[in-house]
């Protein structure tokens, strides 16, 4: 029983650290459906296998650790709205941070796939 408690505590601590370090979770106050309607690029930053298992319609797949490099080579408009999402919001937070550091100025963390599906009615 003590092992279960220790594992549970470790999971909680990892979640808190993830939120502190990467700002996990969707950006509040962003109108994601309107951004998509206006032509925002939607990037699923999960693995190719996760993407193949289901994704937001119209999204492209670029794993989070490659997002800044790949988008810098594809997208010359650094102000273009880009929405990144993953499974829970942690990888998309890391991708957003990397994209901002690469000069992209209009990046929104859409959070997790389930959150995005709810927002978009998918």
SSE layout:
Layout: H1 2-22, H2 32-37, E1 41-44, H3 48-52, E2 60-61, H4 67-74, E3 82-86, H5 90-101, E4 107-112, H6 113-120
Description:
- By secondary structure, the chain is an alpha/beta fold.
- The protein has one domain: 3-Layer(aba) Sandwich (Oxidized Rhodanese, domain 1), CATH 3.40.250.10.
- 49% of the residues lie in helices and 14% in strands.
- The protein is built from 6 helices and 4 strands, in the order H-H-E-H-E-H-E-H-E-H.
- It has helices at 2-22, 32-37, 48-52, 67-74, 90-101, 113-120, and strands spanning 41-44, 60-61, 82-86, 107-112.
- It has a 4-stranded parallel beta sheet with strand order 2-1-3-4.
- The protein is globular.
- Mean pLDDT is 87; it is low at 19-23.
Task: Summarize this structure as a short list of keywords or feature phrases.
4-stranded parallel β-sheet, Oxidized Rhodanese, domain 1, 122 residues
Task: Briefly summarize what is shown.
This protein has 122 residues and is α/β, with parallel strands linked by helices. The protein has helices spanning 2-22, 32-37, 48-52, 67-74, 90-101, 113-120; strands at residues 41-44, 60-61, 82-86, 107-112. Strands 2-1-3-4 form a 4-stranded parallel beta sheet.
